Amino acid sequence: MTTRLDNDDSLHQDFVKEVQNQFSEQSFMAIDFVDGYTLQVAPRVRLGLHSHVHNPFMSLIEKSKDFKTIWYQERHGYWSGVKELTPIRGKRMWMSIIHFENKVNEYKGYGNVPKERVEDFNLHPAALEDVIANVEDPKVSRKSALKHKIKTNWKVNFKLMKRALFS
Predict the structure, then answer these.
(1) Angle, vertex CA 22, rays to CA 49 and CA 27, nearest 5
(2) Are 58 and 78 in contact (CB under 8 A)?
């Protein structure tokens, strides 16, 4: 089993266990935990829900003989054409971290997430303390949060429906 993970993002403390729970003697199966969180750490500290089909936190279960690893598909979006993929909803197993050095990512969070949720992602103690002390009230960005929620849910549901119909 292999998993994609950028060095500036975080996985839930139960992520490995949840991936292993998906194992049932498959010879090749990609696992896509669709739901996660997004945490912006600068210039403002914001925490929100986010969902992303074929996201940068996918895992690949495969036989060890002639293994390919999750990097078999160079970009995580390329997994859309692979039939051997299981999308999993309702388990928030990843957290994308948005910061000044991000070249492409931007904060697209929504919802009122209890700030204590970040404790399950084993952040550095100083970073965890900073997030809990400074996270912005989600009511401050209510308008943009609604836009992100509508756009995210539309994209996720469309991609999952397309996968169900054409895979």
Answers:
(1) 130
(2) no
Strand ranges across the sheet with 94-98: 10-11, 94-98, 35-40, 46-51
pTM of the complete model: 0.89
List alpha helices for 22-135, DSSP H: 125-134
CA dihedral 106→11→137→102, nearest 10 degrees, is -20
Instruction: Give me the residues of the chain with pLDDT under 70, please.
Output: 73-77, 101-104
Per-residue model confidence (pLDDT) at position 7: 81
In this structure, how many other beta carbons lie within 10 angstroms of the beta carbon of residue 101? 8
| Residue 4 · residue 68 · CB < 8 Å | no
Distance CA 28, CA 92 (A): 23
CB within 8 Å of 60: residues ≥ 6 apart: 1, 2, 3, 28, 29, 30, 31, 68, 69, 70, 72
